[in-house]
Amino acid sequence: MLKIGDILRQTRIFSNEDVCQYSKVTCDVNPLHFDKESARNAGFEDRLVHGMLVASLFPLIISSHFPGAVYVSQSLNFKSPVYIGEEILGEVQAVNLRENKKRYVAKFSTKCFKNGEILVLSGEATAILPTLTMKLVHSELK
């Protein structure tokens, strides 16, 4: 059962193929994602993973534990760049739960880290969950 304070986690390494596929779907062809020199001229070390692609970890984590969850809102604060090939840890922490018409409105603190400690993305998400009973997946629960 999900409780306030529970943290769900999942890691992912975003590849060049992920960036290319995301770009095709979104039509985001910003050269910072495809051209190393453009990225360096803009002050980055290498090509960037799209920030919204990194943020896609949050609904993935929630829906994998709560099939049928409806994602209602998400705020995002981009803190540090994510480069292709870096391992990213996504975390969602339950901060508020309330029952509403046989469903549950859950508010989560959302964070992504690289190298296990560098905050790259933070925010808050709200989802409507069909139950507080979690489906066990390969993510971690703390």
Number of helices: 4
Provide the spatial order of strands within the biggest beta sheet: 2-5-4-3-1-6
Helix content: 10-25%
Overall shape: elongated
Number of DSSP E strands:
6
The SS-based structural class is: alpha+beta
Mean pLDDT: 94
**C-alpha Rg (nearest Å):** 16 Å
Q: What does the largest sheet look like?
A: 6 strands, antiparallel
| Poorly predicted residue ranges | none
- Beta-strand proportion: 35-45%
Distance between the termini: 12 Å
**How would you spell out the order of helices and strands?**
EHHHHEEEEE
Layout of secondary structure:
Blueprint: E1 7-13, H1 16-26, H2 36-41, H3 51-55, H4 57-65, E2 70-78, E3 87-100, E4 103-114, E5 118-129, E6 140-141
Antiparallel strand pairs: 1-3, 1-6, 2-5, 3-4, 4-5
Architecture overview:
There is one protein chain. Strand 3 and strand 4 form a beta hairpin. This protein starts with 6 loop residues before the first strand and ends with a strand. It is of the alpha+beta class and 142 residues long. The chain has helices spanning 16-26, 36-41, 51-55, 57-65, and strands at residues 7-13, 70-78, 87-100, 103-114, 118-129, 140-141. A 6-stranded antiparallel β-sheet has the order 2-5-4-3-1-6.
